[in-house]
Model the fold of this input.
Amino acid sequence: MIAIAKSAVNSFVTDSNEALELKLVRDVSDLENETTTFKPEMSHQIFGESESIFGYRDLKIKLYYTAAKLTTYLGISYSEVVDPKKCEGIEPDDVGKLIAEKLQPGFHTNLDDFCNDLAKDVNFTPFGQLERSFKTKGNENSPPKCYEVYFCDITNPGFASFHERLQTFILWYIDAASFIDVDDENWRFFVMYEKYLQGGSARHAVVGYMSLYQYFAYPLNIRPRISQMLVLPPFQGRGLGTELLRTVYQHYVAEPSVLDITVEDPSERFQRLRDFVDVANCSMLDAFRPEELHAGFKSSMVEEARRRFRINKKQCRRVYEILRLKHTNIQDARQYQSYRLAVKQRLNVPYKKEMLDRQKLKKLLDDFEYEATVTFSSAAQRMEHLEQQYREVEAEYRHVLDRLEDRG
Done:
């Protein structure tokens, strides 16, 4: 009987990533077009770590946005809902409430009303000032496409409301995401759109965005920090993230008060993108010529990278290591060993700091307290860990160099 009851409960469990479908709707015909549907990468920030929903069979969650204004529709359907009396008294999850708490009030739950509002997208004008416009190369299967990036802040009328809808996407694509208070005047935004023709008129479709917070840097400078960056799934794989980051660099390089650009807790994906852009840029600088790279990391590299591209010192060190790897002949044992030692010396800095801290602590504690407080590792264990760190770093760097080579 217990097995039967458990089976009955499990039959009402749905994978929340599979149940949810998103769309950016340009035309009513997109509603029935499966190719315009995209899925979340994660849903634990709404439905919990298990990323599952209890209480329904054949559950479908439709979260649709008009492509320009991001007017929102939430639709929920299912073939059967659980009877708590037959499932140990367990109530079904309130799916609508869980999602609605994250959406801007006033979203549609009636598809006809959503379609009526879709027509208003024709009057949409991007917020802020046009920062950059560019076209991608077409091919036999896809014509060239035009993209625009707009720079804006909270002073742009209507943007705060638009951003409230825009930022809901991060829940499905950025881990540990949190909504930001755009009322803070130090926030800056770069929003990318695809510009296209429909019915003979120019239209815009949201592609993605980047948010930055402008921190004060003594005495009269600014240090922008990248907070969030997202290119929506329908537009991924086109190099648009690279173009968005380059646009941000171009904007801030033109501002003399900006010292450098930092990144708040970068994901592995974003770090790889950042490495690619920074390495491509710095490879053209005199300070990063092959002969300079083999001579070691220098302050001249930091100064030129900061002046030309607002790259900070920590990121400049990564760029140096990647470019030095590019120009290192791994068949030359001495040259390759020199490179590995240079990287390992940098990786070993935290360990050396830890050892200094231990020495200070030992002076303050007796032997018993010291041994109870400090965790020891042998020299062999430390060397093994350092070697593993190096292998992981080199693999990351080679991924960046492979992409550079593919670009030609």
Summary: The chain has a mean pLDDT of 93. The first strand starts at residue 13 and ends at 15. The CA atoms of residues 131 and 251 lie 8 Å apart.
